[in-house]
Design a protein that fits this description.
Elements: E1 3-4, E2 23-25, E3 48-50, H1 62-68, E4 72-78, E5 88-92, E6 98-100, E7 104-110, H2 117-122, E8 128-133, E9 139-143, H3 149-154, H4 157-160, E10 165-169, H5 174-187, E11 194-199, E12 204-209, H6 213-223, E13 227-234, E14 241-243
Parallel strand pairs: 1-10, 4-7, 9-10, 12-13
Antiparallel strand pairs: 2-11, 3-6, 5-7, 8-9, 11-12, 13-14
Length: about 260
């Protein structure tokens, strides 16, 4: 195992994206995100969102339900809880409380996390950002900023046994990336043909699809280097999407760092 600060080649994660929700936004565009200055705060919009009632639900549904409300779930486990293992036993803030989009919700789950690698990392989002993979199949474990990678990996070593892997220290945290993702998704609620996803290894939120130049520019102004926009334009004749012409934010990746 090697521990280093290195940016891996990004590849679609397949099954490893279990920890990083993907949103497909299919309505048609009516507005453009407004440019703003200052630090990223995904929850600074005028409308809040209610914490969903997760108590009694299975932990497998937590990300789906929290994500639908624009919230970030951080899990903890209670081995001595009397409820069935995998059942949510407590939520903070309380269900029904109105909070800003992108806020973190602490979710307590009965029992212990699963033994597989994905479950172990999902259960420790304070220390891990997520999983990725190199083109040769090597697993990439992304540790959160400010966390000792050796200590973090020691907690999941049994799940890594016999698997080729490497460790990278991220520039951000799981919660911060999810806050940015929630904010971008909220900005693009009126957009069409977009996907928004988190790249946990690179520490970026990616927007892919037929992104109009004005929208791409507004996202860049709003979120700075926290967001990567890979933009394509549909062919005016109705054919396949084509790269945007030069001078209009070409269809190449805008590389980004999450602001601290």
């Amino acid at each position: 195992m090697s521990v280093r600060r290195a940016r891996p080649s990004f590849v679609p994660f397949g099954v490893t994206l279990l920890l990083t929700p993907v949103l497909l936004l299919v309505a048609c565009a009516r507005r453009v995100p407004r440019p703003r200055s200052g630090p990223v705060d995904a929850g600074d919009g005028p409308a809040g969102t209610a914490v969903p009632d997760l108590i009694g639900r299975n932990v497998a549904l937590v990300d789906q339900l929290a994500g639908a409300a624009g919230l970030v779930a951080v899990l903890s486990y209670r081995p001595r809880a009397r409820q069935a293992p995998g059942t949510v036993v407590a939520v903070h803030p309380r269900p029904g409380a109105v909070v800003g989009r992108g806020s973190t919700v602490q979710v307590s789950v009965a029992g212990r996390p699963g033994a597989d690698l994905g479950a172990r990392i999902a259960a420790d989002r304070r220390r891990f950002v997520g999983l990725g993979a190199d083109p040769d199949g090597t697993l990439v474990v992304a540790v959160a900023a400010g966390v000792d990678p050796a200590v973090a990996v020691s907690a999941i070593r049994p799940a890594l046994a016999g698997r080729r892997h490497r460790v990278v220290t991220g520039r951000t945290t799981f919660a911060e990336l999810e806050r940015v993702r929630a904010g971008v998704s909220a900005e693009l609620l009126g957009a069409c043909g977009f996907t928004v996803r988190v790249d946990p290894v690179a520490g970026e939120v990616r927007v892919d699809g037929e992104v109009p130049a004005a929208v791409a520019a507004a996202l860049s102004d709003r979120y700075g280097r926290a967001v990567v926009v890979a933009r394509e334009e549909a062919d005016a004749t109705g054919g396949e999407p084509r790269p945007a012409p030069s001078g209009r934010i070409p269809a190449r990746t805008r590389r980004a760092r999450v602001s601290s």
